[in-house]
Amino acid sequence: MKSCLQRSSLRRSPFCSAAALLLFTAALASSPAQTTPSASETLQVDAKAKTTPFPHFWEQMFGSGRAILSLRDSYRQDLRSVKQITGFQSVRFHAIFQDEVGLYDPDRKPILFAQMKDATAAAPSDNTGIYNFSYIDQIYDGLLDHGIRPFVELSFMPIKLASDPTSLHPFWYRPNVTPPRDYAQWDAMITAFAQHLVERYGIEEVSHWDFEVWNEPNIDFWRGKPAQASYFELYDHTALAIKKVSPRLRVGGPSTAQAAWTGDFLRHCKENNIPVDFASSHVYANDTAKDVFQTDEVIPRDRMVCRAVRKVHDEIAASPLPSTPLIFSEYNASYANEPNVTDSVYMGPWLAGTISQCDGLTQAMSYWSFSDVFEEQGVVRTPFYGGFGLIAEDGIPKPAFNAFAMLHQLGDQRIPLASDSALATRRADGTLVLALWNYAPPDGTGASYTRPPASRGPSRTFTLQLSGVSPNAAATILRLDEGHGNVISTYDSMGRPAFPSRDQIVKLREAGKAAPPDHASLHNGALTIQVPPQGLAVVILGNERAKR
What we know:
16 helices
C-alpha cells in the first residue's frame, strides 16, 4: 500500500485503487485548518501608503499536458483563453524527447528521391537522419504564434538512447525514465537540439527561454542509482552541452518534487563549476510534512505550498549561490484527482491565500496546469474528474479559471494590510484593487460531496475603511462563490453526465463564465462586503475598467 500512496503514484498513475485514494484524501481533508477567523473583519486601507513591488509571479507561466498534445486544436483554444485572462508568458510540459515527438532515431536515415528511383544510389553518410525536428518545430511555432515561450523541460529518455528500454513510468503514455546508455550520445542530442532552436528562432529569442533538466528525479520519474548522484551526472552533462551552444542559454534544476534537494544541488554546482541559472522545485498543497519537511506535523492545505516555497527560498539564501533565482515549476492545491478541490469554488480562496503568502519568495510559480487537455492517467472520461486544469474538456471554464481572471485585476504594487484574508494593491494608474476571501476546507473527500455548502461555516463580513480615495468612490465587485462563476452547480443539476450532449456543453460553457460584476459606492470612505465560505471577491476602486 505504501507505494500506492506515494505522491507521484497518486498524482499521476491510474493504478491506485479508488478506495486508497478516498482514504488518503479523507485523512488530509480532516486535518485541522488554520484557526477559524472571526466572521467579521474591519480593514484600514490607506491608498497612499508606501507600497512594495507585487509582480504577478503566479500567472507568468503554466504547466500543461505533455508536448505532443500542444498540436491539438483544443489545446491551442484553451491556450488562447488562458492567455487572454492572465497574459501569461511561458508554458512547461513533459516529454519533448518522447518517441512520439520523433526527435531521436539513430537507425533511420532520410530516403532521398534519387534512392527511390535507383536502389544503387548511395545513402547519405552524415548523421542528418538521427534528429528529426518536424514536430518540435510545429510545437514551438504554435506556442510562439500565441505569444507564449516554452519553458523547456528536457525529458524523457528516447527508447533507443535509454540504458533500460523496458523501464517505463506508469503514465498512460509510458515515458522511459532511465539514464542514457551513452552520455556521448545524450550530449550530442542536447547539443543538436539547442543548436537547432538557436538556428530556427535566433539567439535573441532563445536566450529568453529556460531549459530545465528532467522532471522530479527524487521520485519515480528517475531510476538512476543512486538517485541524487546519477541525476547530478545527468545535469552536469546537459548544462555543459547547452552552454557549449551558447553561454546565453539559461539552464537549471533540480526540478524536484516535494521541495527537495535544492541546497545539495547548488552546492554540487558550485563545487564542480557547473553552470546554473535558476533553481526549480515543485510542491502540492496536499503533500505531507513528512515528505516535504521530514516532520510529523500536520500542515493545512492552505499553508503547505508557501511553507515549502519559503523552505527552498531559505536554502538558496544559505547556499554558495545565494542569488540564484527560484522558480516553482509545478504547484496546485492537489496532486490527486479531487473534484471537490480543483473543480470547485474552493480554488478561489485557496489561490488568493497562496498568492498572498508566497509574495517575495519566488520569481515565478507555474500552476499545474492551464488545461484538462491532459492524458497522464489516460483519455479523459468525464469533464469534471478533478483534473488539474483551469478549463475542463470541451472548453468549459472551471471556477479556477474565473479565480485567475479576477486576481489578474490586482495591481503591481502591494499596500500593507494586517489580514490573512485580504490583499490590497495599487495599479500604475492609481486604481485601488483589493482581494477578499473566506477560506474553508474542501467539501467531502475526493469525488464525494458529503458536506453541503451550508456546513462550510459562516459568511464573512469585511468592512473596508479607505483613505486616500474619494469618500464616495464607485466600486466594481467581482465574485466567485457557490452562486457566482460556478459551473459545477449547473453540472450537478444535469446529474453529472459523463458525456454531456452538445446542447449540455453549450449550457456548461455559459454557466462557467464569470458572473456579471456588482456595483456599489463608498459611503464616507467605507464599504461593507459579505463573502460566503469558499468565496472570493475582488473590489476595484477608482477605475471600473477591467485589465486585459
